[in-house]
């Protein structure tokens, strides 16, 4: 059974004047146990909102969220505690996500305390063992966040997420605010933890290099919709959707020998304000856009390779091969 | 032992802050006066000897006597107890009531539900309270309930409640957007727990620093009321009323009944307003950590 | 191949905050057309260095240097001794411009971006309002603002982060500067926007052979847009070389670590799997901060602070092993 199954998720935010921000518009995907799904996209694509709905920081307007078969909206009190243990989150801001006036040991112990654990010795032991797991020693127990480096702060954030032995961890841009050195270190740590615990990850990021390192599968989002989804190798080596192609060509590799790919996309990501669903929202910037793209929203099409893409270019292909 | 003191956090902190150190000394002196002042008083602070009015400073009366023949020195020292106890109680009242309500109002401001509505109501009540001139309120209280120390404490409490509340509220409104609040929510904290166990401690520092300023102004407020006769009852020694009654005699050249209490009052108010920083430094674990790391960094070179 | 005319020279630049060194003994040389990637962590001194060259160090900091100059039209212009007013009149805003990260903070919220841009232009050059407005529109089109005419009348809060950053870049490029100092100019921008802006800047630099110092945390940016690299750590120079040698064969263990951890090898198993870098920063001036994790570390690396070793091609590295 899938650890997480997301079905047709919608979220809109009302804005003054009767308008709406259409943040998430019909997102569906699933994550298997021990698997990492990378959710990529630029600002305004809704990826963070998806993550927050999964940890129940916000409720979807439509759609289903199933964790191990259980519906995440309308959770009963007795299930709430268990779910809090099993689904956790690592935040973007390494310092901001830690209470500045709490010691490291209190920060890490809290999720366990809240899920009912009262035994002080057990708590301390667990905290120390989690610290070891994130490669920090006991000396960190009494420190305050401000005394730690960025990398250490984010390790504490990771420790806090793992202390309750979760089955699914949502990571919301955990490396975007970190320096080069710490980024790589955290990614290696996350890889190690996944191998050790068999936990699933929803890895949300705009950094394609890092997503590639961690993810088994990747879903690309644009203006609240998934435009392409598939095995990480496939999506990165053979991108289908024009937007995915644009994203990949925009990525800069740290290798001066490789000529950077030509980048063809112009302009900015449009605002998700009052988004229409009667056309492909990428058509305004797409070099391959046709009349059809401006009048109709393309649904997902599954290619032979298992690769899913929402673009009329591929509808035609399928039609062609069928006909 | 001496080494221990020299290297202690407090000592090192004070070394870099001369004004606050002066404030601390003044405040400690004031506290000592409150506790032990009665032993230093040579003469009665509440009864005067007729025939010994308006004597200039001399051996028997170090600060001279006032228009009622009472020893100015004794009254000035005794006034510490009067003024300070009223002012400290009032400030703590304002803090004790204002802070938690302010945290509540700040955290639930704009949110849907009962709490959000309550938060808005609280704010409107504050608007009304703040629209009232404190002084007039004080006179009103006295007119209705008569002058007494209890009324003065209440007055200072009420006068400073909106300030404390709003300060707490604005701090909390900034803090609640931080991601550690979201992290606390994700971990399973209820909203009320987050507001009071996670956010409130982080909002405490500026409000505590405000305490000392409140006390300083409180002294001035009582003095002002006493000046117009709405403060403490005669012959309770209180700086404000002393300045008031002494004011009449200034014109005829007898400066001592007014100036001495005035001086003590000014210095005490100053002392209190400087102490806020020290209180924050002592209570707040973060302040200490920051201070210590900046010290260490400075030494590295 | 353009001639190697010197552009910027820095020697012995030191900035202190009280007793603490923010920058210690920085020295390097750039030629016209060079784009220098300034790499370092937070706290390494990148921003302090850019501020120092622009004589914009925060109050309370002390700065001194043996040499700090740039070359305008072949003539050496001392940036250290000259009075600020003189530099403001002749160099800053005209020949040498700056792009700061977090551009939004430098704009006044109560004036439109067009007005502010015009004011800046007029204070640096003799222009009528009409000429300045025209120039603004020109620059806005150049940086691909979505609607140059309309955007001129926008207030800063009405523009997205990407747009504000582009305005900042437009301002910096408007005077066709000979020297550009950019402090993480595209930080926080979307990948696609960042790429457009960098490509644009790249094109402009090549045309005018400006010398650029580009502070960045992104090795990808350094690899693709810079021809030289300077790595800072804790206020000191760690390594300086041309971009190809740096990425192919980094000399300093810190540089090697950065490259490994940035997944230069584009496969899924980076070489730096086992090693966690423990900085020996707390050793202060004794020994090398990498002595805990460097394979080539020897006895003296633990106790003696390494000096700069200069190579024949002009590159240098701070390491006792050379």
Considering the chains and any ligands shown, give keywords for the structure.
heterotrimer; A: 323 residues; alpha/beta; Rossmann fold; 8-stranded mixed beta sheet; 4-stranded antiparallel beta sheet; 11 helices; B: 301 residues; mainly alpha; MetI-like fold; 12 helices; flat
Provide structural commentary.
The complex is a heterotrimer of chains A (323), B (301) and C (322). Chain A is 35% helix and 22% strand. Chain A is of the alpha/beta class and 323 residues long. In chain A, α3 packs across α4 and α3 runs parallel beside α5. In chain A, 51% of the residues are buried. Chain B is an all-alpha fold and 301 residues long. Chain B has one domain: MetI-like fold. Chain B contains twelve helices and no strands. In chain B, α4 runs antiparallel to α5, α4 runs antiparallel to α9 and α10 runs antiparallel to α11. The longest helix of chain B is centred in the first third of the chain and has 37 residues. By secondary structure, chain C is of the alpha/beta class. Chain C is built from eleven helices and 13 strands. Chain C has an eight-stranded mixed beta sheet with strand order 7-8-9-3-10-11-13-12, sandwiched between helices. In chain C, strands 1, 2, 4, 5 and 6 form a five-stranded antiparallel beta sheet that branches. The longest helix of chain C is centred in the middle third of the chain and has 18 residues. The radius of gyration of chain C is 21 Å and the shape is globular. About 2% of the residues of chain C have low confidence. The chains are: A alpha/beta (323), B mainly alpha (301), C alpha/beta (322). Chains in contact: A-B, A-C, B-C.
